Amino acid sequence: MTSLTSVKLCFLPCLMLLYVSSPNWVAFASATSTTDTEAKALLKWKASLFQNQALKKLNWYPPTHNTTTNSSSSNQKPRTSPCTWTGVSCNAAGSVSMIVLSTCGIQGTLHAFSFMSFPNLEYLDLGLNKLFDVIPPQISNLSKLYYLDLSTNQLSGRIPPEISLLRNLTFLGLYENTFFGDIPNEIGNLKSLVGLYLFKNQLNGSIPRSLGDLTSLTHLYLYNNPLSGSIPEEIGNLKSLVILDLSANNLSGLIPPQISYLSTLHYLDLSQNQLSGRIPPEISLLKNLTKLILSKNTLFGDIPSEIGNMKSLVGLYLYNNQLNGSIPRSLGELTSLTTLYLYGNQPSGTIPNEIGNMKSLVDLDLSQNQLSGIIHASFGNLTNLEFLMLRDNQLSGSIPEEIENLKKLAQLQLEINQFSGYLPRNICQSGKLTNFSASTNNFSGPIPKTLKTCTSLFRVHLQRNQLTGNISEDFGVYPNLDFIDVSHNNLYGEVSNNWGQCAQLKTLRLAGNNLTGSIPAEIGNATQIHELDLSSNHLAGTIPKEFGRLSSLVKLMLNGNQISGRIPSEFGSLLDLEYIDLSTNKLNESIPSIVGDLFRLHYLNLSNNELVQAIPLELQKLVQLTDLDLSHNSLGGMIPSEMSSMQSLLTLNLSHNNLSGFIPTNFQDMRGLLYIDVSYNQLEGPLPNNSAFREAPPEALKGNNGLCGKVGALLPPCNEHGSKKHQKRVFGITFSLLAVFVLLSAFFTIVFIVQRRKKHKDKDENHKHEEISFSVLNFDGKSMYEEIIRATEDFDSTHCIGKGGHGSVYRANLSSANVVAVKKLHILQNDQKNLQKEFLNEIRALSEIRHRNIVKLYGFCSHRRHSFLVYEYFERGSLASLLGKDDKAKELGWSKRVNIVKGVAHALSYMHHDCLPPIVHRDISSNNILLDSEYEACVSDFGTAKFLNPDSTNWTAAAGTYGYMAPELAYTMEVTEKCDVYSFGVVTLEIIMGRHPGDVFSSLSSGASSSSSSASPTPEMPILDVLDQRISPLTKREAEEVVSLVKIAFASLNPSPQCRPTMKKVSQLLSSTQRLHLSEPLHMTTFSELLALDGFTT
């Protein structure tokens, strides 16, 4: 795709020449009348535009008098000549012939522009403004127009076919607007057209065959539209064409061989479509072609050897197709080629030795193929090479010494191959190397000495090899280094103090080596570090208190060493920590209470240490923690009941400690808990009524003498289990009697209160509250109530499938064979008003809306004993439960996840924009998104929903789930649709990452620097690093869809509500075929590159 600047520069000289060489116009009798008409027409149009600052700069107003000298001053009359106005030029007769108002910032429509008032207008440029709405068909009145530029505005609608009446038109620029519909077939009548620029719109349909009639056309730009169908054969008639760009559409079928007729073509881009078949060998007849871009299609077969005849080629881009066979040796004849991208295909065989003849090459990428064999010494001839990417192939052998001749090399990627031998010793002798990747090979020997002084380094991947040597001496100080991983090698020595002087270092991985000594305190000076992994070494000593200065630290792994002493209290300042693994060391003393302040933690592993004393109560504050492992220590005391507030917890391992007493009964409320291990402690009493305990394997419970419950044959039932001590029997009997007494007292108290209240209600009111219900399942109110009570065994806990703050959800199998979900509200006297409000709110919301992605309400019942709602049952449960289980999450492939996001977006768009009044859910979270058997998403739980009053501000108490609530709710009680948009952004990232992202990603969405949000992912972190690793790798199309979702999520997480998109806009984007175009493979695309991408492709 060529730039906008080149588009303008290409045509202005020739078109201005046409304008200057036009004959002088003969003045006609009504010249003054025409001038007045033109002036009035311009002033009328100006008056219709938005009155902004830009408009004030337009010097459009009639002079107070004329300056004609052959008439007396008494005869001078005011006249309105626009010839001296800003952006307006006239011909010799004083009639407007040119209007150039590009980049003036004017805002408005063209409806008030009187086209018929400008009979002599030849040149009209209104590009780079804020014009909107449609192009009026009256534009056809500009019969003398040869240049029309309305680009980079906000114009919409269809391109009017009347535009084809402008028979003198040579330049038509309508790009970067939102035009939709077909390209008018009538455009083929513009025989004088030289440049046609329609890119970056929403044009669909097929490319009209009539374009083949534009035989004067030199530039045709149709990229970034959802055009479909095949490329018409008539395109071969455009013999004058120099640039043809049809990229980023939905074009399919074969590349027509007639394209070879375009003998003057210099630039051909057909990338990012769905073209199939083979590359036609006739394409080699385009002898003047300098750039050939066919990437991101589904082309297959061999790369034609005839391409070697295209001597003028400078760039050849065939990446991300299904090309196979071998790389043709004839490519070596393309001696002018500077860029060769063949990655992401299926070619096999060896890299031809002739590649060494391409001495102009600057950028060579053969990665992600099935190439085998060695790298030839001829690569040393490519002395202009700056980027060499050979990753992810089956290449073997050693790296030839000649590779050291590449003095300009900035990036060298050799990872995921079968290379052996030494790394190139002088790989950075020129000091220009920034990215060096050689991981996952069989390299041995020392780290190249030139790397120690290679201060240009930015990213280094040398992990998973057999490298040896003293790491203390191999690395120096790198002012630009962002990432280094030398883990899982055979390196020895100590952790160098130099790492603390790498001011930009964000990731340091030295795991799985033979490092000894202590961790140097100087590491604390590397304050930008986000990830520090020193695990699986032989490090000793204590954790330096200077770690407290690593304020950007997100992930810390020191496990598998011999570190002793206490966990430093300075950890309390590391508020961005999300992941801590200190397991398998010799840490002692107690777990410091400050760990509870690390509220962003989602993983904490302190197992296999020598920690003592009780589990600190402060752990209850870790509400985002999903994995907690404190096993194999010497912790004592009771398990704190406060831990039940850790509702995000999925796995909990407390085994092999000295814990005693009962397991807290309120652990049954931890519905997200999937795995529990409390073996080898001194615990007693019943297991909590929770699936994690009920389904626990025997080995997770054994080693305790007093536990009881129904778990296989391991534990005795609690009703048969008793202590051998008489005191416990007495206590049990006493407790039972006391419980009976309390229950009887409560019963009579309730009866008394109910009877007393009845006396103060009239019969009608009593009847109203006795039972209110409706049904869509052919039940009357009474039958519905009795059926629900029977199906749930009077709401027995065995039928409970979920529990929330205001109610529990039960599964009910009705006699009609229907399965429904029943939400029963808790009865809390001190919150009865709020409870009734929640109940009525959900009824109102669900009874007034109908949408395939919103849960269906079947009925409701308000009874003196129970209040409940009956709605559609979703057999796959909530999104949160699926993401929390590895086996279930693996079933959620990328396409299913994309569809889930779309479903939620469509539901919210409907609520915000199609309901009157609009409805704000206020509690969008993964727990409130349910999935049916086909993984179709439905939004549920409308208890906190709010109906917006469009005529006033909407203030309310805060509602929602922590971690999903919009940040503005911390300082304002005003509820808007943008609160749901923020929650949608969180859920979208959670779906993509497979876990809750935390609130740190919002800083990236606003473009914040790492200093302002140190816990956010680093701008240079590859996006691939945060995607859910449990499912299969993304296809090309899935990658673009997922990255598009990430982009939308970041926009939704903007801290400023006004800057978030509407759900209608999000829904439209997801419904269209638009997606982000990645200029690099996903594994090379970083967050900063994603945020810099502007707009979507199709």
UniProtKB/TrEMBL annotation:
It is found in: Cell membrane; Secreted, Cell wall. It comes from the Eukaryota. This is non-specific serine/threonine protein kinase. One of its GO terms (molecular function) is ATP binding. Belongs to the polygalacturonase-inhibiting protein family. It is a single-pass type I membrane protein. ATP binds at residue 824. The chain crosses the membrane at residues 730-754. It comes from Prunus avium (Cherry). Keywords: ATP-binding, Cell membrane, Cell wall, Glycoprotein, Kinase, Leucine-rich repeat, Membrane, Nucleotide-binding, Phosphoprotein, Receptor, Repeat, Secreted, Serine/threonine-protein kinase, Signal, Transferase, Transmembrane, Transmembrane helix. Residues 1-31 form the signal peptide. It catalyses: L-seryl-[protein] + ATP = O-phospho-L-seryl-[protein] + ADP + H(+); L-threonyl-[protein] + ATP = O-phospho-L-threonyl-[protein] + ADP + H(+).
